[in-house]
Every structure is written in structure tokens, then in C-alpha cells.
Design goal:
Layout lengths: L3 H8 L10 H8 L8 E9 L3 E7 L4 E6 L6 H17 L5 E3 L12 E5 L2 E9 L4 E2 L5 H23 L19 H16 L6 H19 L5 E4 L10 E3 L2 E4 L6 E4 H9 L9 H13 L6 H30 L6 H12 L2 H6 L6
Parallel strand pairs: 4-10
Antiparallel strand pairs: 1-2, 2-3, 3-6, 5-6, 7-9, 8-11, 9-10
């Protein structure tokens, strides 16, 4: 019989981040779905969550997401219900979203035992299309149409109405992407990681405060506020079929400023500096052909791009040291962010030390 010591070990979470073996996942999950035998379960991508490519004997194509242990169950449930509800709302539009496949018992996700604790898993229909790097004005305009169609569908769901005008069941509540989530919480995490007495801590406090003041001032102009994708940087939205884009990875979907959501489009990677503004204007032309994005919204994009980078720093400080080791997230990592922040107007103001 196991000793009391071994029982204690078995009950303790002994890892920060594990990679679950494909054979284990297939053995645990295949019986839970009415999809027949799996012919493939291959580890595909490591990100904030782990992705596996799944193929079934009848030719079915799916992507399995195993969420990190830190992901909250209520937020996963919101994401998956949102995706399912979007199916009818996006029919006939320039956007689509891949839903989760329901288990045999009707649930949208399952739970797995992992060395770091419980990890939830969801199986998604694989989106059709090919990756579009969004390097042409034509592609960006088409992407703008798709993003607007997605926001319009989200507006209808939030209001409890359907595309046909009939009433529908409102979505469950979801905490908003407000200034507490975007700035105050990341600041607490970063200072907890580097230390409250770190030499750069005073600058980071002033910088976060300056960003909050700028964002609040912009919001006072009546910015568009509604359900956002939350991570619309192009890599999560760029599978294209003709003029239709597939949107996926809605983990950070929440009510927020649309300028925050679209700021990630303008500042995405993989675009030459001289092309940023022409591609952005092409995107806006497509977006505005479907729904409004006011001059005030557009003017706020620069501020929310800075907010996004500060939020990203907080995400790094929260998760990366546990997964990749503190060596890669030490003084050089901190200096890179601080140098970037100091180049902005808000950062230049924050660099001025107040007189005692």
C-alpha cells in the first residue's frame, strides 16, 4: 500500500507546465466524443495553451486545445458558448468562427489531470482557408470587413437579439477589459515580479498612471464599447477563403473598447514600417463600410496600442518565468520594455522625476 508520504506527493501539483503526451490525450478524450476512432493526435503548437492536431478515421479535421492550468473555467465556458452562438450570427457575412465540438454528454469541454493540476480541453473544428499575411491593401480591406462583421454579430449577442431581429438568450456575464484589467493588474504583477523597490519601479508606476489618464481621457469622448475578440493581431484571424476570414482563439474575448481591439491590428508584426499606415487605412475603409469607427475611436488607437504592450508585459511577468525560466525574463527583458516605453510621449513624461 502507498505510504502517507507517497499519497501526499500524489496530491501535490508538481509541475508549472507540462506537455501531455498525445497517446494519453487520445486515450482519455476519444471515448468522450461521437467522432469514431482517431487516426492522429499530434502535438502541434506551444503557446499560452497547447494545441494538438486531431484527425479521425472518417476524414474529420480538428484542433484540440489543452488550456494552461491557470485558465479560469468560467472564462473558458464563456469563450466556447460565444463561439457556438456566433455560428448563426455570422452566417452569410465576411466572418466565421470555428466552434467547439460537443462531447457525447453535451458539454463543450472536458477536464484532464496533469502534473500541474486540472487542465481543461476543448476540441474545435479546424478552420478552412489559407493564411493571409495581410501585406496588401486589398487583403487589409477584406479583413476590415470581416472584423466589422464580427463586432456587429457580437453586438447583437450582447443585446440579446439575433440577425433576423428576433430576441435571443443574452450571453452570460464576463468581466470587462477595463483599465483595472489592462493596467492596474499588470502593474501589480510586474512589480511583484521585479520587486517593489527595483530602480525601474517608480518609472513603471508613473508610466502606468500616465497611460490610465490618457485612456480615461480618450474614453470620455464616447468611444465604441462592446464585446471584443481580445487578441486580434492577425495571426489569430488570417485564415482566408475568398473574401471571408476565419476568426479563432477567443480566450481573451470580453467587453471592452473597440479601439483596444483594433489597435492590435494596426500594430501587428510582419509589416514594414512604411506600410503600416496605408494598410491600416485600407483596413479602416473595409471596417467602416460595415459599421462606424469614429474619429475619436481612431485617435484612441495609439493610446490603446501602448496599453496593449503594458498588458503584454504583465502577461510575461505572470507566466513566462514559470514556463521558460527567469534567465530569459531578467534585466534584459525588463530593459527592453522600459526602453520601448520611454520612446512614447507618455513614457517621456513618466521619465521626469517629480520634485520632492
Amino acid at each position: 500500500m502507498p505510504s502517507s508520504y507517497s499519497k501526499k506527493i500524489q496530491q501535490e501539483n508538481i509541475a508549472s507546465r507540462s506537455i501531455l503526451r498525445s497517446a494519453y490525450l487520445e486515450r482519455q478524450l476519444q471515448p468522450l466524443y461521437d467522432l469514431g476512432p482517431w487516426s492522429e493526435c499530434r502535438y502541434w503548437l506551444r503557446g499560452l495553451n497547447d494545441t494538438y492536431r486531431v484527425r479521425t478515421a472518417d476524414g474529420g479535421a480538428y484542433m484540440l486545445r489543452v488550456y494552461r492550468a491557470e485558465a479560469l473555467e468560467e472564462e473558458i465556458a464563456f469563450e466556447l458558448e460565444l463561439l457556438e452562438r456566433l455560428q448563426s450570427e455570422l452566417s452569410g457575412t465576411a466572418a466565421e468562427a470555428s466552434p467547439a465540438v460537443r462531447l457525447s454528454d453535451g458539454r463543450l469541454y472536458s477536464a484532464l489531470q496533469a502534473p500541474e493540476g486540472i487542465r481543461f480541453a476543448a476540441l474545435f473544428q479546424e478552420a478552412d482557408g489559407t493564411e493571409d499575411p495581410l501585406q496588401s491593401e486589398e487583403a487589409c480591406r477584406a479583413f476590415g470587413l470581416s472584423a466589422a462583421a464580427l463586432h456587429a454579430a457580437m453586438d447583437r449577442l450582447s443585446a440579446g437579439t439575433r440577425a433576423d431581429g428576433a430576441s435571443g438568450k443574452p450571453l452570460p456575464p464576463r468581466a470587462p477589459a477595463d483599465l483595472d484589467m489592462l493596467l492596474r493588474c499588470p502593474l501589480r504583477i510586474v512589480l511583484g515580479y521585479i520587486g517593489e523597490d527595483h530602480p525601474e519601479a517608480p518609472f513603471l508606476r508613473r508610466y502606468a498612471q500616465g497611460l490610465e489618464m490618457a485612456a480615461a481621457e480618450a474614453a470620455a469622448n464616447g468611444l465604441d464599447f462592446g464585446l471584443c475578440h481580445g487578441d486580434m493581431h492577425g495571426n489569430n484571424n488570417a485564415l482566408r477563403q475568398a473574401d471571408r476570414f476565419a476568426h479563432f482563439d477567443f480566450e481573451f474575448a470580453a467587453p471592452g473598447w473597440r479601439a483596444w481591439d483594433l489597435a492590435q491590428v494596426k500594430n501587428r508584426k510582419r509589416q514594414a514600417a512604411e506600410q503600416i499606415e496605408p494598410l491600416w487605412q485600407a483596413f479602416l475603409a473595409g471596417y467602416r463600410s460595415i459599421r462606424p469607427f469614429t474619429e475619436a475611436d481612431e485617435a484612441a488607437v495609439g493610446t490603446f496600442a501602448l496599453v496593449r504592450r503594458f498588458w503584454t508585459m504583465g502577461l510575461d511577468a505572470e507566466l513566462a518565468p514559470m514556463w521558460d525560466g527567469a534567465l530569459d525574463f531578467g534585466e534584459d527583458w525588463l530593459a527592453g520594455f522600459v526602453e520601448e516605453f520611454r520612446r512614447s510621449e507618455v513614457g517621456q513624461d513618466a521619465a521626469v522625476i517629480p520634485e520632492a
